[in-house]
Amino acid sequence: MRALKQLIRFGREQALSCLFPVVIFASLAITQMIPLPFFPRYDWLLIICILMQGFMLKSGLETKDELKVITLFHIIGLCLELFKVHMGSWAYPEEGYSKVLGVPLYSGFMYASVASYLCQAWRRLDIQLMRWPSSYMVAPLAFAIYLNFFTHHFWIDIRWGLSILVMIVFWKSYVVYKVGKSKYRMPIVFSFILIGFFIWIAENIATYFGAWEYPNQTDAWSLVHLGKISSWLLLVIVSFLIVATLKRVKEKEQCTNNAIVHRYYKS
Question: Cα 234 vs. chain centroid, distance in angstroms?
């Protein structure tokens, strides 16, 4: 019975952490089924995302520090989108006033929603990183993964080599998280795989509702190729590494500030 209660509590915290992605998926579905007046669909999606972001900040569901992280992901995502659409990896066929070089600006929020989930889950589950490798290893690895999304169009695709390197670097690393008063642990590598798989499922839902389309979906929707899981897995890893690095920097700053305050009052 206790295990069931913990599972329900864990599911509730996960659901709350997914609030931003859920709103995006719901908006994709609603705007697909019900045409809205005045603006094209992509513009309405951008408006909804901006309003949702403002609501989350105003209501306290998101902190200002988390908004900074999400904004960073928005920029990173848009850069990737501009390049991939230019290279023909996928397309946004509908019209929109808020499209830049074929990319609607709402698309950046889809990447930002991943960051939102990570930040929310981190805070709600009180996540702690254990046996985390040095930043001198983490930062170049994250940069190499992100760079490969661009360079594989002109050079060899080294995603599988990077995936093996991730397993080596993070083999001993794990996260400790709390559900209620109980603590649990999960290997970092397994959490990467788990999140990547669920994002692949979300990608199928998104393409079904016309968020974007791959070349093989031009005539009719079809399941996103399983090989895309590896792409999302690497993107999740980059997202996780950026959030983890920023969180650790923030923790060090807080520890330093606390130490300064402690010495001040002690003196």
Answer: 11
Q: Which of 40, 38, 49, 62 lies closest to 107 in space, CA to CA? A: 49
Rg (CA), the chain: 20
Q: What is the pLDDT of residues 143-185, one digit of tens each?
A: 888 888 888 778 888 878 888 888 888 888 888 888 878 888 8
Asked if residue 130 lies in contact with residue 185, where contact means CB atoms within 8 angstroms, the answer is yes
**Cα(147)–Cα(141) distance, integer angstroms:** 10
Position 218 confidence tier, pLDDT thresholds 50, 70, 90: low
Distances (CA, A) of 106 to 43, 47, 120: 8, 8, 21
Q: Give Cβ neighbours of residue 48 (< 8 Å, ≥ 6 apart).
A: 23, 24, 27
Of 1-10, 43-52, 220-229, the one with minimum mean pLDDT is: 220-229
Kindly state the tokens that stand for 249.
Answer: 């920097």
Question: Is the model's pTM score more than 0.70?
Answer: yes
C-alpha angle with apex 178: 173 to 179, nearest 5 degrees?
135
Give the three-state DSSP class for 130.
strand
For residue 14, the cross-strand partners are none
End-to-end CA distance of the chain: 53
CB 76 within 8 A of CB 130: no
- Asked whether the beta carbons of 114 and 239 are under 8 A apart, the reply is yes
Euclidean distance between CA atoms 218 and 102, whole angstroms: 16
In tens, the pLDDT along 27-67 reads: 888 888 788 888 888 899 999 989 988 888 888 887 887 78
